[in-house]
Amino acid sequence: VTTEKEFSPKTSSGKVNVSFTFDASSLAGKTLVVFEELYEGEEKITQHTDLDSQEQSIFFPSIGTTAKDSETEDQIANADEEVTLIDTVSYQNLIPDMTYVLKGQLMDKETGEPVLVDEKPVTSELEFTPEQANGSVEVTFTFPADTLKGKTTVAFETLTHEDRELCTHADIESKEQTIYFPEIETTAKDQATDSHISRPEKEVTIVDVVEYKNLIPQKEYKLSGQLMLKGFEEPLLIDEKPVTAETTFTPEEANGTVELSFTFDASALQGETIVCFETLTYQDKEVGIHADIESLPQSVFFPEIHTTAQDSETGEHETPADEDVTIVDTVEYRSLEPGKTYHLAGILMEKDTKKPLEIDGKQISAETTFTPEASDGTAEVTFTFNGKDLAGKSLVVFEKLYVVDTDTKEETEITSHEDITDEGQTVTLTELPK
Predict the structure, then answer these.
(1) Within 13 A of 186's CA, how many CA atoms are on the CB side?
(2) Please, is 84 exposed, middle or buried when counting C-beta atoms within 10 Å of its C-beta (0-12, 13-18, 19+)?
(3) If you average pLDDT over residues 81-89, what whole number do you get?
(4) 428: β partners
(5) What backbone torsions phi and psi does residue 49 show, to the nearest 5 degrees?
(6) Which end of the chain, N or C, is surrounded by fewer C-beta atoms within 10 Å?
(7) Could you tell me which of 196, 198, 197 has the C-alpha nearest to residue 266?
(8) Residue 191: CA atoms inside 13 Å, Cβ hemisphere, count?
(9) Contact 119, 137 (CB under 8 A)
């Protein structure tokens, strides 16, 4: 890289400018020294060629950055309401005792656009005066990151002096500048039914399949789970102890799934709904959470039904022993999975004999199919039969509730209400008035 200039001085002492124009894109971190030679005609009469001359030197600074989360002290962070990222910027070839400004900005790796929070870019700025040419400083970003689950951000840095840009480090593919915000979603199912519906049995196993996104592969993580009691929004306690589970895993890829199993005594949970809460930690620091008490995929339902049988016209538990008797059994259900199809099947039992009522050799039964929009509600089952010979008998309604697989039409019994002594389920047939 050379240049020359011809001039004719008017005085014996003075100055002249010599300009070099060239591509300096590969000179980050380099220092150049200008050598000059003065000729009169073809004869060299003097020179200034001092490699250590400060006045002849031009410094091309360079910066390199490494971003980490302040909590995990690594490149993985929890998408929390407030996150602090620290970008350690190492600089080279600055002029000591001069004032510089580092300006940082977070970029969305997927889109290549600035990260926006409340429609504003996430930026930071640091002014510093180095004592030596080489060293490092920290640029801190503090901002709400709760919208960044599953996102990857990259820190861009620009070094300026007196508002003039000296160098940048803005590589969207730079691993050192990258921060990963994991995301987890969970789907809990009863192991026996392979659905969100379970039975209140002595030993129940709930399997929660956790889908994770945006982890750093080949690092060890811990997944911790806890069962919550919906309606109370507090931990489920069995024998006064919370029901928890945990597992550790080392993913080979950023996205994948891992299972967590809860085995516990559910015999007292009829009519209740439990919800799985999951927390993902890295080096004992929280980096992901899925804790939504209203989440349907995280919920497991333990159905319960209660029934009230009455005469269709009087609404009483007595009905005349007529040729045309209609009993309506109102079934109150709790903790059903909304959107599923259910089949209610009922039969009439004779209270005295504890056997199904038969008329002309046939059991008296009734059924209905319904799809609830909410977990709790009611459905009606109607029995119509000839009761003229049943005066003095007490009939008890027994009900079974099945969940229906709409694809295979297969039905699975999930609960029942069959109490021969239940007065609410009982209707007595009285003699017709004479």
Answers:
(1) 33
(2) middle
(3) 96
(4) 318, 394
(5) -135, 70
(6) C
(7) 198
(8) 13
(9) no
Q: What is the pLDDT of residue 314?
A: 85
What pLDDT does residue 433 have?
Answer: 76
User: How many residues are recorded in the chain?
Assistant: 434
Identity (one letter) of the amino acid at 351? K
Residue 158 · residue 102 · CB < 8 Å: yes
User: Is residue 346 within 8 Å of 397, Cβ to Cβ?
Assistant: yes
**pLDDT tens digits for range 188-205:** 999 988 899 999 999 999
pLDDT recorded at residue 73: 95
The model scores a pTM over 0.70: yes
Whole-angstrom distance, CA of residue 72 vs CA of residue 180: 11
Q: Which two tokens stand for residue 199?
A: 């039975």
Q: What's the angle, vertex CA 173, arms to CA 167 and CA 175, rounded to 5?
A: 95
Report yes or no: 298 and 290 within 8 Å, Cβ to Cβ. Answer: yes
Q: Tell me which amino acid residue 197 is.
A: I
Contacts of 183 (CB under 8 A, 6+ apart): 79, 149, 150, 212, 213, 214, 288
Please state, in angstroms and rounded to a whole number, the distance separating the CA atoms of residues 422 and 114: 67
> pLDDT digits over 211-224, tens only?
999 999 999 999 99
- SS3 string of the chain? CCCCCCCCCCCCCCCCCCCCCCCCCCCCCCEEECCEEEEECCEEEEEECCCCCCCCEEECCEEEEEEEECCCCCCECCCCCCEEEEEEEEEECCCCCCCEEEEEEEEECCCCCECEECCEECEEEEEECCCCCCEEEEEEEEECCCCCCCCEEEEEEEEEECCEEEEEECCCCCCCCEEECCEEEEEEEECCCCECECCCCCCEEEEEEEEEECCCCCCCEEEEEEEEECCCCEECEECCEECEEEEEECCCCCCEEEEEEEEECCCCCCCCEEEEEEEEEECCEEEEEECCCCCCCCEEECCEEEEEEEECCCCCCEEECCCCEEEEEEEEEECCCCCCEEEEEEEEEECCCCEECEECCEECEEEEEECCCCCCEEEEEEEEECCCCCCCCEEEEEEEEEEECCCCCCEEEEEEECCCCCHHHEEEEECCCC
Taking residue 204's Cβ as centre, other Cβ atoms within 10 Å add up to: 22
- Can you tell me which residue has the tokens 């001359």? 53
**pLDDT level of residue 9 (50, 70, 90 thresholds):** very high
**Residue 192 φ/ψ region, left for φ over 0, alpha for ψ in the -120 to 50 degree band, beta for the rest:** alpha
- pLDDT tens-place string over residues 300-318: 999 999 999 999 888 899 9
